[in-house]
TrEMBL record:
Family annotation (InterPro entries): 2Fe-2S_ferredoxin-like_sf (IPR036010), 2Fe-2S_ferredoxin-type (IPR001041), Adrenodoxin-like (IPR001055), Adrenodoxin_Fe-S_BS (IPR018298), Beta-grasp_dom_sf (IPR012675)
Name recorded for this polypeptide: 2Fe-2S ferredoxin-type domain-containing protein
Cellular component aspect of the GO annotation: mitochondrion
Organism for this UniProt entry: Lymnaea stagnalis
Main location (coarse class): mitochondrion
UniProt subcellular location: Mitochondrion
Organism classification: Eukaryota, Metazoa, Spiralia, Lophotrochozoa, Mollusca
Length: 163
């Protein structure tokens, strides 16, 4: 909508200045010129970025790894995108078939996850190593703005339900 308004403004300014009349032939040129000017204008404006929140993973070896997580992404994608080194994590690539993406949350953080686990996730969690009351599968947890500062523990062991 903003871009349409901008194009209209540019076109009307062009009409007022150096383009005396619109003919069917000049219209496509006019449109091309206005698009060019919009692109020039837009390139100097920072593109809206997806919101980012800070998430810290407490790894098996006791190390902490802090990452910037995009709101709307799931934790499996975030771990992959940020190259968080968790051996065997996400073996089924989020198809709810392995339970290797098992993560453990603090109670208050667990309560912030808007989507409750589905029956399929619960079935797979039952096969996870070191299951707790606040366990979730990372591929099923979508990051929200409320999760800024989240600290998530990676279980000491991993079991792949497919084996
Ligand atoms: S990646 Fe396999 S269940 Fe989540």
């Amino acid at each position: 909508m903003y871009t349409k308004r901008l194009i209209r403004t540019i076109v009307s300014r062009m009409l007022a200045s150096d383009v005396p009349s619109i003919t069917s032939q000049s219209w496509s040129q006019l449109k091309a010129n206005s698009t060019l000017q919009v692109n020039r204008f837009c390139s100097s404006v920072p593109k809206p970025q997806k919101d980012l929140v800070k998430v810290t993973f407490l790894l098996r070896d006791g190390q902490r790894q802090e990452v910037k997580a995009k709101v709307g992404d799931n934790l499996l994608d975030i771990i992959v995108e940020n190259s968080v080194d968790i051996d065997g994590f996400g073996a089924c690539e989020g198809t709810l078939a392995c339970s290797t993406c098992h993560l453990i949350f603090k109670q208050e953080d667990y309560d912030k996850i808007p989507d409750k686990p589905t029956d399929e996730e619960l079935d797979m969690l039952d096969l996870a190593f070191g299951l707790t009351e606040t366990s979730r599968l990372g591929c099923q947890v979508i990051v929200t703005k409320d999760m800024d500062g989240l600290e998530i523990s990676v279980p000491k062991g991993v079991s792949d339900a497919r084996r």
